[in-house]
Structures are given as C-alpha cells and as structure tokens.
Amino acid sequence: MTRPPTQLELMQFADGELDEARAREIERHLAASAEARAFVSSIGTLGDLIRDSAAHHAADALDVSDAVMSAIDSALSAQPPAPIAQLDEARRQREAQSARKGATLLALTLAAAAALVIWLNVAGRDDAAVEHGPVAQPSAVASVAQLPSDEASGGDDGTAVDNVDFGERLGAIFYVPTGVKSAMTTVVWISDDEASQ
Amino acid sequence: MSSRPHTSALLAASVALPALLAQVSLAEPARPSPPPKGSASASASSAAPVPAPSSLAAEIVVLHGSNTGEGIDPRIGDMPQLQKPPFSAYNTYKLLSQSRIPLAGSKPGETKLPNDSVLQIALKEALPEGRFKVATSVKSAKGSSFLPLLEVTTSLNERFFVAGQSYDNGVLWVGIRLVK
Predict the structure, then answer these.
(1) pLDDT (tens digit per residue) in B69-90
(2) Looking at the partner chain, which of B9, B15, B20 has a beta carbon nearest the beta carbon of A174?
(3) pTM to 2 decimal places
(4) Where are the alpha helices (DSSP H) in chain B?
(5) What's the burial of B51, exposed, middle or buried (CB within 10 Å: 0-12/13-18/19+)?
(6) Are the beta carbons of A152 and B12 separated by less than 8 Å?
(7) Using one digit for the tens of pLDDT, what is the confidence trace for A48-85?
C-alpha cells in the first residue's frame, strides 16, 4: 500500500515535478480523494489568478509575481559559471543547477499556494469592517526630514496578521526580511483592480 | 541533488514559509498571539486587559513606488526591505507624507491618502508584553472599500505596510506603526 501524498507532493504533482511512479500513485489517490483533488485544483486556480493579475498590470509593469521571478532570475544569473574541467563535473553541475531551480520553483509554488489559501480563507468571511464613528483628527502632516531607521523597531515578534478581508480583490501577505536580526516587515498587498477596469 | 542552500530558493522560501505560517494564524483568528519566550504561559493571556498607553499614536508614512529609475528618496532613510520583493518590483520610492494619528481608546482615527482614499485605524486591544491588536481599513475615494478589514497584532515601532493602490503611474505603499 502506498503512503498518502503530502501537501508538498500534491504541489509538486500539480507542477509536474514528481517522478512517474510517484505521480501514478498520486493519480490513484486523487481518484479516491475529493479533498486532494480540490487542493490540486486550487493550485491551478492560483496560477490563473496570478496570470489575470499580471495581465491587468502589464502596461505598468506592476506585477509582483513577475518581480519575484525577476529577482530570482537575477540571483541565478548573477552566479558566473565556473570553468568546467571534466564531463562528469559538467554533468554534476548541471544536475545541481537543475535541483536548485527545482527547489526555487517549489518554494515559489509554496508561496503562491499560501497566498491562495489565505485569499480563499478570507474571501468568504463576513467580518465587520472597522467600526465607523467619531474619528480622531490626525495631526498635520509633518515636514519630513528622514524616516526613523527600522533598526529602531521593536522586538523580533514582528507584526502578525490576525484577520484580513480583501473583499472582492486579490491579495497576498508578504513577510520581508528587514536585514536586522530575524525581524520581518509585514506587507499586505491588495491588487487595485479598479485601476485596470 | 545538491544539499547546498541557494540564494534564490531561500529568497522564495522567505516569502513562502512565513505566508504559510500566516495562514495558520488566519485559520484561528481568535487565537491570542504566542507568549514571548520565557514568559509565564497561557495564564498571562487570560489576565485582565492591559491598559493602552494614553499617548499611543499611529505613525503613517506614505511612499510612492514607481519605475521611473530615480532611485530611493534619501528621506526614506535606511530601509533594506525596499531592495527585496515585493518592494523591489519598483526601482523608485518617494516619501509622500508622514503623519500621526492619535489613538484614543478604541475610537478609530483616519487620514486621507494622496489618492483621496481614507485610511482608518483603530486600537482594538492592548496585549501583554507590549503588543497591540490594531484594525485598519481603507476606503477608496469613490466610497467603495479598498481594504475592508485588516487586523494585526504588532509591537511599538514595528512598521507594516498596506500596498497596492494605484497612484500617479505607480503604487502607494502605506507604512503604519504604533508609536508613543
């Protein structure tokens, strides 16, 4: 009896990255599991959503997923190929590079899947918006000399997103390393569909 | 397969894994934030509400990201995040404004953004260990909701961003952090 696939394997399956034998096992599992089918299907749906978003923003080159891919491509291309002395060495390097690209794609798939799951989780919620009432007036916009450095930030706990309602829009949450210890900056990104309509 | 870590994989993983962790917290929206290391346990979170400092305010910085090749406004200061995705989708950042919204009790405060949308922010709860639960929303100038609701748990001086609103051939990045 074969072991049930993990979520990672389902993502790899959706991405066509599994070997044939394991892919066949997972196909059999999918035939029997509606939940697994829905998960794999959601991976494909996410791809469609990202492509739609990219199309909306193509004119302004505002697509975040493209930017992430671009940054990764840059990181890959920034490493000059080492001189190759032997055929075996060349083959080993090619396999290593292929494995690294596979790991990158897997991580990207994870990121995309995470964004989708978050979006799906919050899309159906009917949470009340921030309560409207008498509002405190902000102080006048200060003349800006320079923003305080993020090094002055608080502890390493970071900002945790407890609840988010993107409404009808597509959104994603990013945690960006600040470069200070293990601190992360939380970014909640919402696609501005109205601008492209 | 090589076991050597690779920059690009780590870069992507840095996006993926925290996002997955965030999903876990979304699945349990009522879950209190985890107690900090070395603190006493669950009983701390069930203790009496922590009074919020009366001088608490939200500092709002509005950045404009675009791809005009002009670089980063020196007034923004040292913000290495701008070199990393998703910030790095733009090569130009300008500081448009900086303001403070006093947070008196749970009464929401608001400020108008450069695209005439309105950012509203309210302190929901003061938590132990200097953490605060904050609710934010953004209404577009047309009255529709750009961001119906965002609730975060944050600390003093921890800046988080709400981004994505189109403005002047670029995008607004609204940085929010609680300050005293």
Answers:
(1) 999 999 999 899 999 999 999 9
(2) B15
(3) 0.53
(4) 7-27, 42-45
(5) exposed
(6) no
(7) 555 554 455 445 445 555 665 666 666 555 544 444 44
CA distance B85 to A102: 20
Counting one residue from A and one from B, how many pairs have CB atoms under 8 Å apart? 305
Cis peptide bond N-terminal to B86, omega within 30: yes
User: CA of A86, closest CA in chain B: separation in Å?
Assistant: 18
Residue A133 pLDDT > 60: no
Residue with the two structure tokens 């130009």: B92
Q: Can you tell me the ipTM of this complex?
A: 0.72
Contact (CB<8Å) B148/A115: no
Q: Is A174 touching B (CB cutoff 8 A)?
A: yes
Q: Which of A141, A147, A167 sits opposite B76 (nearest CB)?
A: A147
Candidates B24, B38, B55, B45; CA nearest to B131 is: B45
| pLDDT at residue B172, rounded to an integer | 97
Separation CA A158–CA A177 (nearest Å):
10
User: Are the beta carbons of A134 and A178 closer than 8 angstroms?
Assistant: no
Taking CB atoms and an 8 Å limit, are B22 and A128 in contact across chains? no
Answer yes or no: do B163 and A189 touch at CB < 8 A.
Answer: yes
Q: Report d(CA B64, CA B165) in Å as an integer.
A: 10
